[in-house]
Amino acid sequence: MATGHTDPQRRARILAATLDHIADEGVAGVSHRRIATRAGVPLGSMTYHFGGIDELLREAFTGFADHIVAVFEQHLDGVAGPDEARTAVTDLVHTLSEGPRRDLVLTQELYTLAARRPEYRQLTQAWMRRSRELLERHFDPDTARQLDALIEGLTLHRALEPDPHHRALTRQAILRITTPAP
């Protein structure tokens, strides 16, 4: 394995190893030694690249949030009109809930940290703001806020149910939130 400056991907490998470790064993099991071993880097690389475990976790979770926002962007970019937006949101819920179990676990680990610690709450608030901004391209701010919460809830329920609900129910829930009252 390359050392020092000849290994430009080391920092990225450490961050990826951190997320993999959290997905497998939870945040509580994160240590410099465990992450260094998992990333295949010398232990000294940990303190060289990160000021501590909190900096490592914040950076890893920030990268994860960026990944999820990119999934939102993939579904919502280029959508024209409310009906296409509703279909895109339906597709998004099903993509997230049927996607890697790793993403679901990482989301819940981050939410648990955010519930306990303000610095992680700021990270989740920034993530939610970015998600809502993407939704606000197609819906008013209040609807976008409700829809963002619905996406989270439906994704979690679909991912954890032994017999997840079908697209029609997802679409119906989205229609109820996004269709203006008569």
Q: What is this structure's SSE topology?
A:
Layout: H1 10-25, H2 32-39, H3 44-49, H4 53-76, H5 81-98, H6 101-116, H7 118-135, H8 141-160, H9 167-178
Task: Jot down its keywords.
182 residues, mainly alpha, transcription, 9 helices, elongated, Tetracycline Repressor, domain 2, Arc Repressor Mutant, subunit A, Homeodomain-like_sf
Write a structural description.
- The chain has 182 residues and is mainly alpha-helical.
- The chain folds into two domains: 1-51, Orthogonal Bundle (Arc Repressor Mutant, subunit A); 60-178, Tetracycline Repressor, domain 2 (Orthogonal Bundle).
- It is built from nine helices and no strands.
- The chain has helices at residues 10-25, 32-39, 44-49, 53-76, 81-98, 101-116, 118-135, 141-160, 167-178.
- The longest helix has 24 residues, at 53-76.
- The N and C termini lie far apart (65 Å).
- The relative contact order is 0.11.
- This is TetR family transcriptional regulator.
- Keywords: DNA-binding, Transcription, Transcription regulation.
- One of its GO terms (molecular function) is DNA binding.
What portion of the residues fall into strands of 2 or more residues?
under 5%
Global outline: elongated
Backbone CA Rg: 19 Å
H/E topology pattern? HHHHHHHHH
Can you say what the CATH homologous superfamily of the largest domain is? Tetracycline Repressor, domain 2
Q: Counting H and I runs of at least 4 residues, what is the number of helices?
A: 9
Poorly predicted spans: none
> Which class of the largest domain in CATH terms?
Mainly Alpha
CATH topology of the largest domain: Tetracycline Repressor, domain 2
Number of E-state strands: 0
What is the average per-residue confidence, as pLDDT, rounded to a whole number?
A: 93
Secondary-structure class: mainly alpha
State the end-to-end distance.
65 Å
- Number of structural domains: 2
